[in-house]
Structure formats: structure tokens, C-alpha cells
Write a structure and sequence with these properties.
Ribosomal Protein S5, domain 2, Alpha-Beta Plaits, 7-stranded mixed β-sheet, 5-stranded antiparallel β-sheet, Impact_YigZ-like, Ribosomal_Su5_D2-typ_SF, Impact_N, IMPACT family member yigZ
Length: 212
Amino acid sequence: MKKIISGGTGEFTDKKSRFIANIYHIEDEDMAVKIIEQLRKKYWDARHNCYAYVLGGKSEIQRFSDDGEPSGTAGKPILEVITGNECGNCLCVVTRYFGGVLLGTGGLIRAYTNAAKEALSVCRLGELTEGVHAFLDVDYNYVGKVQYICAQNDITIVNTEYADGVTFELMMENAARNVLEKNMTEMSSGKICLRDTCSMQMYRDDTGKLCR
């Protein structure tokens, strides 16, 4: 399952009709409804505001609306873009400004699909994984070694604070934690260890960086 870490906007035009798609991460149906209403107010002069969203660990909640377009030509194609790309807890709203020319069933399906794909292409997505958020306190002699181990084992350095010593804020998958702890134990004879560790679900984005 993929998470929308940061949403996106895309646009598709066909025979002077503009299709503006907006994609968001959502936590529940109330949040979805609120965003849909906000977009209806923003695009108050548009002909249609069609949408689809999925919720739940396995996207078991699925909703969509054609908002006045012919049945099956808008909401369902938008939903298929979301589910086809394995996006979870995701809302996509496609606003249509009518250009004066009817597009037909096939044309509408293509337009709503392309608009949703355009928006999704600029979103930042993440793959769900199990991992650990933790802190590591070291003296300056170990900074380069810690940075090297992190780079070699896909450990994300969230933040680094420099004071009398150096504190790394880290996010890592469970296998990488074992590697890091083994290396730190060997280098410091057991004196350096992770603190404030917290197991959690996290996401690895398309750049390889872990995030909450």
C-alpha cells in the first residue's frame, strides 16, 4: 500500500473542457467530505466536481461520485487510477469546466482518467514498512562512521544536532537497526547504543527516504 506523502494537482484539456485533478491523503470520511466541500467552494463556477476515495488498511472503504456526469464516466475511472496504483487513504477530486462540446462516454472516461493520472504523477508517494524511530548520541570522532553506516544501510538521518556531542535522529527498518547496533557495539565496546527507540509504521518515499 502506498501513502500520499504530499498531494498534487494535474490538469487535462479536451475540446476546450478543462479537467483539474487534486489528490490528498485522508484519515477518515469526515476529512474527505470536508475537502470535497472546500473544492466545491473554490471551483464554484465549474460544471462538475467528481471524486473517488479509498480508506482502510486494505482500502476496504471505497466511495465515488459522478456528480452529474453520465453514470460510470467519472467517479469510477478516478477510483481505478487510485486503486490501480495501490494508493491507500487517498482522495482524488476532478473538477470539470465544460468547454461546450460533448465528449461522449469514452471521451469522458479518458479525460477523468488522464486528469487523475496527471495529479498522481506529481504526488510524493511512500511504501508502507515496519521500522524504528530512535536517537543516537556520539562524540565527534564517530560522526563520519555513523553517516557512512547510515548511507550503506538505507537509514534515514532525520536531523543532526551538534553540541558537546552529536545527536542523530534516525529512522530505519528493523533489519537496518540490527546492523547499526552491531556496528556501534563493536566500535565503542558497547558504550554507544540507541535511545528512545519507538517501533512504528513508516513510509519509504520514491527517493528512498523514510518518513512518518
